[in-house]
Specification:
Elements lengths: L1 H14 L8 H9 L14 H11 L3 E6 L3 H10 L5 E3 L17 E3 L6 H5 L3 E4 L3 E3 L4 E4 L8 H5 L3 E7 L3 E2 L2 H6 L8 E3 L4 E2 L7 E2 L6 E8 L1
Parallel strand pairs: 1-12, 2-3, 2-4, 4-7, 5-8, 7-12
Antiparallel strand pairs: 5-6, 6-9, 10-11
């Protein structure tokens, strides 16, 4: 503890111009040399089961489906919500193979207005990665995910999470992401309790989140 305290104080003195100030290069070298043997996983659970449990805790509807049954599950969920769904560019075509012709699919090309998105039944997307420990889904708005408005304006979001995309914790998840891309973190349906601790859903995102975990 004493050694750690001395290191902290020495770095404060160096940063504030006190005695023993280090040159910029020395500060960078000292920072790079700091040990980073962090605990990377805080559990030994089945991370797919843990993600499903945590996402459901946030009031999302969560289903684990076998990969061959994914298209049928997507069709079933969409048919249960009448109206048109917006489909982002790059969504795997096989995912929609069993959606009946009676379900209208809309492309975001050219980009739909906020009013048009608000009139839709929902949106179907994939994701970049999911976090078991927090039940969080991360979108980086790449192929199959669409721009941010697609997953914030419609009232219903159906998201497919491949079991292989589930990371154990935040550190593992962020290690898989490109920091230069925009990221949206989704932990259950949109909700707030800012006013008198009364829960209100759908304030800054969809009121309904349905997660399909596709397992091989």
């Amino acid at each position: 503890m004493s050694a750690s305290r001395d290191q902290i104080l020495a770095r404060i003195r160096a940063a504030t111009g006190g005695a023993g100030r280090l040159a910029d290069g020395d500060i960078d070298a000292a920072y790079a040399a700091l040990p980073r043997d962090y605990l990377r996983a805080h559990h030994d659970h089945d991370i797919t089961a843990l993600f499903a449990e945590r996402a459901a805790d946030y009031r999302a509807v969560v289903e684990r489906v076998p990969e061959p049954g994914l298209a049928a599950a997507i069709a079933r969920v969409m048919v249960g919500r009448p109206g048109a769904f917006v489909i982002p560019a790059g969504l795997p075509g096989g995912w929609l193979a069993e959606v009946p012709a009676t379900t209208s699919l809309t492309r975001d090309e050219p980009p739909l207005s906020a009013a048009e998105l608000d009139r839709l039944a929902g949106v179907v997307t994939g994701c970049a990665v999911a976090i078991a420990e927090t039940g969080t889904i991360i979108l980086d708005h790449g192929p199959g995910q669409g721009r941010r408005a697609l997953t914030l304006v419609p009232d219903f979001h159906l998201v497919v999470v491949q079991a292989a995309q589930i990371a154990a914790d935040l550190a593992d998840a962020f290690a898989q992401l490109d920091p230069s891309r925009p990221h949206t973190l989704v932990s259950g349906p949109s909700a707030t309790s800012d006013i008198e601790l009364i829960r209100v859903e759908g304030v800054h995102g969809p009121r309904n989140l349905h997660v399909l975990i596709a397992e091989v």
